[in-house]
């Protein structure tokens, strides 16, 4: 029996699809997690539906996990992580096991936003510009900084829009930093670095490049146009398709960037703004995109990026061929009012809308307050079409059919 180890997963289903693919390839699935409760919002694609063996363990404690590997006497063919917080522990374990994984120093350069900003600044590259930025370790440091507004504050090692705020003035900034100072762990039990970036706000359209490492090096699979909501820049919609690339040489720029960082494994999700004729780098995520973007990419191009990442973990590569030229979109359902969302009706009718591929609603009841991160989203609708407009129209038609039962406190 062949064994594949998954250390935690993400909550939008990418990791559980990888488990399904690995099972089809004949692997026994081992799932290690700190707490199964963090997956309670997942319904159809809960990791327990696919895992053959579950171990409850501190997944941030690399030494403890090494001990468990020795104790279990299982010969793992590969090891995978699908969230930001476990990329480095998994890379360390892959090195320990002698299986495929990230170069740890390259991973740190990409994973920690302040390290990436300084590294790229020192390289003086021109194919990706960066906003002006400051790195701070304590809220009091902003007193002596010259900051232009609006600006963005973000923690150097969180994701899902957690801790991100667009600040219009110094009062906003100081308030946001005081709130952030109180937050020492995130929802995934990850202990935050206690460092923040304060960045110039770049006005422009946001995109991401979905990159895959192949036998021939990095390859651009698709470009995603992104939509965010509110002062915390919570991602609320994405669309991908054949005519969304804003620059003719985007693939070459992304390849150069990833090679500069030293990344040579897995996938990468490069976020950037376009302002005028310039690309401004937001961040480099050395992993598959979240928010179901790999699912959109497969609908639009025919390339299953998740399968390719699973194969890489066991040292195999398949040719990547775009077999489709479609558009695929997702819109996240945001609570329109505060209260407890207890029920939803109209799902059956919404599923029948032409072009709709999937509707997912998180576990109800759900208490909705201010929308400050991706954890405040109620669910999502995915659709495809022969144009961006058609895909988005299908989603909107389906969302309009959903009727929510809300109890106001």
Automatic annotation (TrEMBL):
<dbReference type="InterPro" id="IPR040570">
    <property type="entry name" value="LAL_C2"/>
</dbReference>
<feature type="domain" description="ATP-grasp">
    <location>
        <begin position="120"/>
        <end position="314"/>
    </location>
</feature>
<dbReference type="Pfam" id="PF18603">
    <property type="entry name" value="LAL_C2"/>
</dbReference>
<dbReference type="InterPro" id="IPR011761">
    <property type="entry name" value="ATP-grasp"/>
</dbReference>
<dbReference type="InterPro" id="IPR013815">
    <property type="entry name" value="ATP_grasp_subdomain_1"/>
</dbReference>
<dbReference type="Pfam" id="PF13535">
    <property type="entry name" value="ATP-grasp_4"/>
</dbReference>
<dbReference type="GO" id="GO:0005524">
    <property type="term" value="F:ATP binding"/>
</dbReference>
<keyword id="KW-0067">ATP-binding</keyword>
<keyword id="KW-0436">Ligase</keyword>
<dbReference type="InterPro" id="IPR052032">
    <property type="entry name" value="ATP-dep_AA_Ligase"/>
</dbReference>
<dbReference type="GO" id="GO:0046872">
    <property type="term" value="F:metal ion binding"/>
</dbReference>
<dbReference type="GO" id="GO:0016874">
    <property type="term" value="F:ligase activity"/>
</dbReference>
<protein>
    <submittedName>
        <fullName>Biotin carboxylase</fullName>
    </submittedName>
</protein>
<keyword id="KW-0547">Nucleotide-binding</keyword>
């Amino acid at each position: 029996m062949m064994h594949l180890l998954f250390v935690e997963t993400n909550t939008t289903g990418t990791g559980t699809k990888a488990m399904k693919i690995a099972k089809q390839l004949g692997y026994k699935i081992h799932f290690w997690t700190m707490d199964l409760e963090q997956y309670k919002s997942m319904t159809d694609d809960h990791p327990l539906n696919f895992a053959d063996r579950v171990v409850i363990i501190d997944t941030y404690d690399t030494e403890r996990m090494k001990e468990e590997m020795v104790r279990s006497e299982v010969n793992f063919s590969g090891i995978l992580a699908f969230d930001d917080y476990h990329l480095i522990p998994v890379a360390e374990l892959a090195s320990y096991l002698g299986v495929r994984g990230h170069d740890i120093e390259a991973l740190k350069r990409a994973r920690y936003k302040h390290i990436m900003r300084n590294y790229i600044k020192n390289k003086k590259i021109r194919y990706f510009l960066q906003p002006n930025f400051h790195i701070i370790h304590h809220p009091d440091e902003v007193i002596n900084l010259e900051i232009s507004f609006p600006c963005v504050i973000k923690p150097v090692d969180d994701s899902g829009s957690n801790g991100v705020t667009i600040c219009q003035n110094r009062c906003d900034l100081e308030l946001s930093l005081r709130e952030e100072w109180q937050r020492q762990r995130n929802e995934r039990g990850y202990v935050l670095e206690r460092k923040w970036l304060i960045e110039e706000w770049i006005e422009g359209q946001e995109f991401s490049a979905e990159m895959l490492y192949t036998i021939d090096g990095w390859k651009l699979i698709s470009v995603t146009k992104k939509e965010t909501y509110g002062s915390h820049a919570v991602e609320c919609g994405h669309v991908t398709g054949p005519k969304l690339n804003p620059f003719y040489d985007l693939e070459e720029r992304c390849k150069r960037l990833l090679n500069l960082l030293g990344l040579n494994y897995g996938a990468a999700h490069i976020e950037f703004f376009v302002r005028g004729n310039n690309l401004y780098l937001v961040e480099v995520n050395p992993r598959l995109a979240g928010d179901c973007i790999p699912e959109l990419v497969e609908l639009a191009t025919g390339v299953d990026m998740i399968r390719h990442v699973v194969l890489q973990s066991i040292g195999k590569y398949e040719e990547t061929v775009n077999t489709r030229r479609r558009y695929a979109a997702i819109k996240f359902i945001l609570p329109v009012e505060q209260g407890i969302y207890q029920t939803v009706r109209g799902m059956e009718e919404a599923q029948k809308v032409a072009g709709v591929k999937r509707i997912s609603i998180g576990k109800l009841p759900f208490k909705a307050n201010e929308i400050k991160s991706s954890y405040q989203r109620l669910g999502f609708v995915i659709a495809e079409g022969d144009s961006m407009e058609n895909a988005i129209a299908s989603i909107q038609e389906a969302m309009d059919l959903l009727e929510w039962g809300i109890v106001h406190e």
